[in-house]
Amino acid sequence: MTAPTAASAPPRRMVPLAFRAAGLGLVGLSVGLAMAVRGSDAADPLLTYAVVMTAACAAAVWGLWLAVDRYLLRAAETLGREAGLIAHGNAEGAVGGRVPLARYGDLQPIARAVNDLSDKLAQVRRDIARTVAESTAKAEEQKTQLAAVLRDLHEGVLVCNTRHQILLYNQTALDILHLTGELGLGRSMLHFVVAEPLTHTLERLSLRVREGRHVNHEHGTTAQFVGATTDGRILLEGRMSAILQDPEPGSDEPPVITGYVLTLSDATSELAALGQRDALLREATEGFRAPIANLRAAVETLYDAPDLGPVDRAAFESSMLDSCDSLSRRLEQVSAAYRSVVTGSWPMSDIHSNNLINLVAHRVGTESPTTVTLTGLPQWVHGDSHGLVLLFAYLIEKVHGLTGATAFDLEAAGPQDGDRWVYLDLVWEGPAVPSATLDSWLDQTLPGGLGGLSAGDVLQHHRSTAWSEPLPTSDGSAGRARLRVPLPPAQSPRSAHPRPRAGARPEFFDFGLLHQPLATSELGRTPLDRLHYVVFDTETTGLSPSTGDEIIQIAAVRVVGGRILTGETFNTLVDPKRPIPPESVPFHGITDGMVAGKPTIDAVLPQFRGFVSGAVMVAHNAAFDLKFLKMKERAAGVAFDCPVLDTMLLSRMLLGNDGDHTLDGIAERLGIEVVDRHTALGDSLVTAAVFLRMIEMLRERDVRTLDDAIRGANILVELAARERAF
């Protein structure tokens, strides 16, 4: 890096130089005058007075410098760093990123101006969100009215076991299925109803119950689906409710699904009418194209005809063009109405992106040459789970056939640039899919799709589209590509009502743990964006490991190549062999009953050490977590000797000591919002997202390698140790 010129030197370099020069000059003058007085034979009162006044001026200059440095220059530097951090964020809350005014004294007008600019940006984003909300209000009203009508319909009821054998049914079910005596007890439901929607819905409920999400899930143990009879004559709209068998008292196992209840209604007439309208609209749109083409051909013919007079030609051309424009406008109106009818009638529900991607990976299967890796931060979307699973499994197969790619990342990305869409991105090594090829794929029928459903139909049901684009690598070459599908966000996102948390963990310093040797090897010279990380977090009974507090939960997520591998996590509760203080429960939400019977820390730490093997460990306020781990190393027979990076120290490097370095504060200003916040795994995901954003910011500060980051953190630790020594 080249040294800055005098004209561009920062104030923190030029101003202290000027003060020091003035102070040293006055000190030198004072010393010279003092020596002159001492060397003179007769005391000169004026000379003595000059010495005293010069010394007083020197002291005043130094005092003025200390005041300017503390209350102006340091505050201005911190304010600049805070403004830079806000500029890197993309928060969309009630207000923009905030600079605390009380901290900046005489610089409050500048801090207030930064806040005003941030608020105006937030206001623009709120206006956009408000406009979108108002435009969907009428659609929501119509949906509510339709739901009220459907609830009053008489439905058929069937009870089946997990092998889909019928245990109970009512007469209405016979009427809906148009059966007289064929539907018998003990017979398989799959003999009468297409298997795929039933098995998929049961698989969704099984995953929900197995993970314990049914307790707080909006729909509990129920899920909707659309199916059909095996002969294809009747289309069914149904709801499946799982029958649960509770585990034995004292067991930690989740409930077991022993069967399900189906409520069915005959949707053939409604969907048939919709199909007829679709056919009419499709015929109308296609029927318009030929007349329009004929009109345009006639206009071109008349334009080329040399035997018409100027007046006749002008009138004829004007009439034909008016007719053509009228038909074109009518075509657009009919097409828009067609899309609205199709989209508004398809049953959808809120879906967790991790569950959706896991179902895609399960459908791709172990026998396929392709693998699907779950990456990124989880999101909630609103859509047709079955249709989306079919769509992405189909697209993976097509991309594999076109490019030969076998490893795919599938991740959900939150709203971007102020929009409301959640993006599902399919990423692979290789070229992007040409738009013409992708369009031809979307026109084809989905394998397993109901009623000849095409890939384009699934997108149209979600008011969505799809496109493919290359992803440039860090060196500028286009080695990866993605296929992006925007989806509507969840209508009732679970993260909108997080469990309250009592407060942030206080900053914890153990200078022996924080100060690390440089890696001094190939690892230390590796750029930060190319390292393998494990971001972890612990929950504990209290804040003092030296007085008996214990770990009660450890969670971690792997970060490789700038990707958060959401599917590669470590998450376990730990039995601390001591009561959890009631006052600490609000911090983590873990009770004695939740950890009873769980493995002890001696059994968990070897597993966790294997998970972090070969990786750089990352945590927020890492010294706190490391202190608990280090105290249990000997008992567990492991050693945590990996390099460790602390996002709290990295924040201090970027923002200065006077900024807000809590995880919540940093995440809020960077606009990072994560589902399942305030759990050990949720905090690990937040820290991982913050850390990836920090890597970009550190590169701008010329902190590029692991050794650079450790060196900078060690300097901060040393300064903190000296401050505490005084």
From TrEMBL:
Residues spanning the membrane: 46-68
A biological process term (GO) from this entry: signal transduction
Annotated stretches, region: Disordered: 465-502
GO cellular component terms, semicolon-separated: cytosol; membrane
Boundaries of every HAMP domain copy: 70-126
Signal peptide range in chain numbering: none
Catalytic activity, as annotated: DNA(n) + a 2'-deoxyribonucleoside 5'-triphosphate = DNA(n+1) + diphosphate
Pfam entry (one): RNase_T
UniProt keyword Membrane, yes or no: yes
The protein's role, per its UniProt record: DNA polymerase III is a complex, multichain enzyme responsible for most of the replicative synthesis in bacteria. The epsilon subunit contain the editing function and is a proofreading 3'-5' exonuclease.
UniProt-listed PANTHER family: DNA POLYMERASE III SUBUNIT EPSILON
Protein name per the record: DNA-directed DNA polymerase
Species, as recorded: Azospirillum lipoferum (strain 4B)
High-level lineage: Bacteria, Pseudomonadati, Pseudomonadota, Alphaproteobacteria, Rhodospirillales
